Amino acid sequence: MNIDDKLATLKYNKDKDSHLTIDNDVCIHCKNRYCTYICPANVYEWNDIKKTMTIRYENCLECGACKIACEKKNITWNYPNAEYGVKFKNG
Fold this sequence. Notes:
- The chain is of the alpha+beta class.
- It is built from four helices and six strands.
């Protein structure tokens, strides 16, 4: 089973507010954009034409790898509000 198949088995309870925030002006000057590579759920996507970072926070696995990998320390990461976010087990 590949990562996309595994991710499709997870359940999410999407909050209306993101638990991930960035300053797009900082992302513009980032050369490597490690967050777009390290996130196993592909939460971050850089649009080179618009020069913007899209954050699909509702897919976040809450691993925190993006915050550690960001060389600009530009990602503010908090746990989602209670009852929201990824659900790893049914119950």
